[in-house]
Sequence to fold (516 residues):
Amino acid sequence: MSEDAPLAGAHRLALADEAATGRLAADLAAILKPGDIVALSGQLGAGKSALARAILRELAQDPELEAPSPTFTLVQGYDTPHGPVIHADLYRIRSPDELDDLGLIEELDRTITLVEWPDRAGARLPGGRRLDIVLEVDPARPETGRIAHLAGGVLWRQRLAIALSARAMLDAAGWGAARRDFMQGDASSRAYERLTQADGTSAILMISPPRPDGPAIRQGKPYSAIAHLAESVDAFVAMDRGLRSLAYSAPEILAQDLSTGLLLIEDLGADGVIDANGPVPERYEAAARLLADLHRHALPAILPVAEGRDHVVPDYDRAALAIESELILEWYAPHIAGAFVPAVTQAEFSRLWDALFDEILDAPRSWTLRDFHSPNLIWLADRQGHGKVGLIDFQDAVLGHPAYDLVSLGQDARVDVPAALELRLLAAYGAARRADQPDFDLAGFARAYAILGAQRNTKIAGIFARLDKRDGKPGYLKHLPRIEAYLRRNLEHPALAALKGWYEAHLPRLFDAAER
Fold:
């Protein structure tokens, strides 16, 4: 391909001026990940360096970044919130073999790479993660206008669709000129940006494309289907509207593109329920009382998403509870505990859990938000009542036992919750339930709390091990000692005596950790 030849099947974008180039840079920066290559082609003066600098400033979240052209140094590196970035200008390269001396090729897998004059690299720049952009002067606006042709392989089709759809949605909603800042995501594949208008007004762009099916692992279904994880943004929209209808502080949805998986939502702020000293007891208690209020309602299982489009809140059924528990066998046992668990021992594990699930599944059900813990709770001091607790990240909600979400709060996976505070939360919850329902069975609730606490921490131990081993995210391992301690705490309940014996016999690391 010559440096100025448009790409077959490319998206054609007219960039009227520098501001339009900046918006394209923001759109691209939002979807770039380490391992991506952006190959910028075009004649001299077509705007390759201008677009590269604009992308760099967006990735660095620094509009004043100088970002000099690497015409003479050939390669310039940057550390950004999106990861390391390399900007290369290969104009002076005469042979692809010269790239070996630059070390550029060796860094491609771990960096975002912006390359001007990519044809100089020959076949050295792989195509799988490569986005080609050919720029040309717009003859209708030769002084300021440029035309960009964007094309990539299979991996880029959805990502380009997201970028272009986000631009259309934001422009239509009046947020097209807002500054876009990358926000650190969670353990999922969702991404977030904070958008800030010139007057300081902010909102959150949530990028949650439809979940692709993983491999079938049981009864022809992938893990996500068995565990009832949200497959599209519809679940978030439905639960958001349901929670807001009860006067809870779920974010207002300002704009949406359901087919692409894009939401522009209210920014609830960054004041959480923890501070430098850990959990703020009054805020945790407020969250516990919110749960008690939620659980006193008769809640629907079918919620509207859009006209003619509904979301069915799935049951937190035996299959979902079981497959989550089994994550500890698949990931934690071999990779953390160094334990081999034979099939007969796994069958005993399943039998013990199955009996406990009988108790849980016989109880009345309620909306279970599933990740009701500190990263997803925002403190809104200027609101009243239950509205002081802002709620986010509830798209995986199911119909389950009311104790599950209180466990998520009282045994917070990301911060140590002292046992004394956990008892205060149980007491606050119980008092609120009994005020509405005098015969509320607090002892039975505490039993279910211990069972679901053991189930949840068993699951999380497996998830954190998986995030390390499979997904290359070792940062989650720092939370494992806390998860192990919570699990031991739950196993002390008399209802879990037999299960505790299984863990002691087959995963002794859990109990050795208490002595370290």
